[in-house]
Amino acid sequence: MRTFIIKAKEAHTRADFRLDDLPGTSGRIDLLCRVLNSAFLLSHGFRRNVRVWLLLYGPPDPPKAIRFDGPKLRVRLNPDEGSTAKLIMKALKAGEDLREPGKEVEVYPGLSVSNRTFEDVIRLTVKNSALYYLHEEGRSIGELSFPQNVAFVLGDHNGLSREDEAFLEGIAERVSVGRKSYLASHVVAYVNIFLDSLPNPP
Known about the structure:
By secondary structure, this protein is of the alpha/beta class.
């Protein structure tokens, strides 16, 4: 299983944005839509061995965690950002009344929303996956040997905070796909392509 965890500092935690202006009204949920496409979509297929956590930390509500679970997912992901943003909106609407920590609501099979925090998701993930932090200054991805269950953490266009990085110290190994700062969706696509090329890909 491949897991991608992306923390979006400005992404809205309520479905109060406009689909016709995602970059301007949603806190860059358009970026998260592109990450989902890069994580799951093939030219004529769909990756079932992938899980994506979208951690939304923008206004106006407390943080929301939206999970797309490839093996169970029964909704269609299309290349266009609009239809993917609609799924995120439905998840946010389903999670409006969440109060209990860790409580999860299934929106569709394989798509759920909770009020888990960044730290919650990391702790949950490391129970059964090796964790890597995607960062320009990390060890080159080509130098590592990966187990069958891997998880990759990355930030949005603003990156992770110093507090987030401090939390990951000793938990996640830094790994790099290059010394330049690439788009998050491109990084996810590169990691998928690299892992596909391995003799025994995760």
